[in-house]
Design goal:
The complex is a heterodimer of chains A (390) and B (91). In chain A, 34% of the residues lie in helices and 16% in strands. Chain A is elongated. With 390 residues, chain A is α/β, with parallel strands linked by helices. By secondary structure, chain B is of the alpha+beta class. Chain B has a single domain, classed as Ubiquitin-like (UB roll) (Roll), CATH 3.10.20. Chain B has two helices and five strands. Classes of the chains: A alpha/beta (390), B alpha+beta (91).
């Protein structure tokens, strides 16, 4: 098994409190004192303290990984709590970094936690990765996935990977010395808008737990140099069918970053590479947008506006402003329900899908289409505080 | 019949079916049979020029067809084809 991990167990020792704490590891020959010292000497970077990052960081901390870095820039909100089990209700509004560090410390005070309060970028990734042995990718968007992968390949650090969508997850170990990387599997990202993010598509709260624990297991195995890591294998997890399947991954000799003649030798602009998408990218406001205040004023004035809701029916049940419901995906085949001569205001949850709907309608010959800036969430915030938000 | 496994993000285009059975002698035929019976799926699997999209991986059993004979890879009864698109969620 070829991996780049070479921790130095001789540089650390365990005191009696630590020996007692790790006793169930120490009595197993696969870990033992030598393995536990390797764990203590290891430096693991968790990218993101969210759904995957929560169980990942908790278990790595509990297991005795000596140095645990966490990169995150986000603040805990109520919608995180359904799955991000490192954060509690009392943490809402706090930095995820502070909340996560506190929980790990509470479980294991012997862990050295490095809080890295930034968004991972092409400017800081290589410098940051240098200080760690293994990178665990728990991010949530394509630009950061490609950035993490390329930075791992360029700095020679294994990328312990998992991603999730609704009831389904994928996990693998990329960018080891002889193994494939994320780009060998997916040379290009999907075009913007084709694959929904978790914020758009939803995710079963337990799923990041399942996948994050698989990531943690792989991290530990890489450090201990034991077992069969997920190198060259993609594990597919289907929580609905509770089926685990495995696909073979090969190192692509033509891979632009880890192939024989790489064309990517430094980090690039990943937003541009991915056509700028992902829930973290703010939706640009254009002059074809309408504010919730303006919409309210014009509806109250009795203007003849057609409100088009492009969310899904189950979202409409949570809250609505009496719009005509046509989910974005159905718009092409149901466009004949709309009158091109009417002034149309399209809205969704936060404004991203309705921006696509408005573009589609304009291209289809509708001349008077607005996108409701901020979507129904902005309406709930600024017009109708009694409305349920999700 | 050959079974094509449909991943969650694409099930909205197959009437929520997790797997679709097709009669085909190779991967290309199987996928074209799939998009013929589920036309909404076409733009998610193929480019406007009719090429398989780069971010959609197609596996025959546990092998990537890119390392077999791509769309000409022959399939037989009882084979499993999987469509494995990239997903990015994690938070």
């Amino acid at each position: 098994m070829a991996t780049a991990i070479d921790v130095k167990p001789e540089t650390v020792t365990l005191n009696n409190d630590e020996i007692l704490r790790y006793s169930r590891h120490l009595i197993m020959p696969e870990v033992g004192m030598e393995g536990q010292l390797k764990l203590k000497a290891a430096k693991v970077l968790c990218v993101g303290a969210g759904g995957l990052g929560s169980p990942l960081a908790l278990y790595l901390g509990a297991a005795g990984v000596g140095t645990l870095g966490i990169v995150d820039f986000d603040v805990v909100d109520f919608t995180n709590l359904q799955r991000q089990i490192i954060h509690t209700t009392a943490d809402v509004g706090r930095k995820k970094l502070d909340s996560a560090a506190e929980k790990i410390k509470a479980i294991n005070p012997f862990v050295n936690i490095r809080k890295i309060d930034t968004r991972l970028s092409s400017e800081n990734a290589l410098e940051l990765f240098k200080e760690f042995d293994i990178i665990a990718d728990g991010t949530d968007n394509f630009p950061t996935r490609y950035l993490t992968n390329d930075a791992c390949v360029l700095s020679g650090k294994p990328n312990v990977y998992a991603s999730i969508f609704r009831f389904e997850g994928q996990a693998s170990v990329f960018a080891t010395k002889d193994g494939p990387c994320y780009r060998c599997l997916y040379p290009e990202p999907p075009p913007p808008g084709l694959v929904p993010s978790c914020a758009e598509g939803g995710v079963l709260g337990i799923l990041p737990g399942l996948l994050g624990v698989i990531q943690a297991t792989e991290v530990i195995k890489l450090i201990l140099k034991t077992g069969d890591p997920l190198i060259g294998r993609l594990l597919l997890v289907d929580a609905l069918g509770m089926k685990f399947r495995e696909l073979k991954l090969r190192k692509n000799p033509d891979c632009p970053v880890c192939g024989k003649n790489p064309t990517i030798k430094e980090l690039i602009d990943y937003n541009e590479f991915c056509g700028i998408r992902g829930e973290e990218m703010p939706v640009e406001t254009t002059n074809a947008d309408i504010s919730v205040e303006e919409l309210k004023r014009r509806l109250d004035a009795g203007d003849d506006l057609f409100v088009l809701d492009v969310r899904e029916p189950h979202e409409y049940q949570i809250c609505n402003i009496n719009g005509h419901l046509i989910p974005l995906g159905d718009l092409p085949k149901r466009v004949n329900e709309l009158d091109p001569n009417k002034e149309i205001v399209a809205h969704c949850r936060s404004g991203a899908r309705s921006a696509k709907a408005a573009d589609f309608l304009r291209n289809a010959g509708f001349h008077n289409v607005h996108n409701l800036a901020g979507g129904i969430l902005a309406w709930a915030d600024r017009i109708d505080p009694k409305m349920a938000k999700y | 019949m050959t079974k094509i496994h449909i991943p969650t993000p694409l099930r909205q285009y197959t009437g929520k079916q997790a797997a679709v059975e097709v009669k085909a002698s190779n991967i290309g035929e199987a996928l074209s049979g799939l998009v013929t019976s589920h036309p909404d799926l076409r733009r998610h699997l193929y480019t406007d020029e009719g090429k398989l999209r780069a971010f959609v991986n197609v596996y025959l059993n546990d092998e990537d067809v890119r390392y077999l004979q791509k769309e000409a890879t022959s399939v037989s009864d009882g084979d499993n084809i999987s469509i494995v698109p990239s997903i990015a969620g994690g938070r």
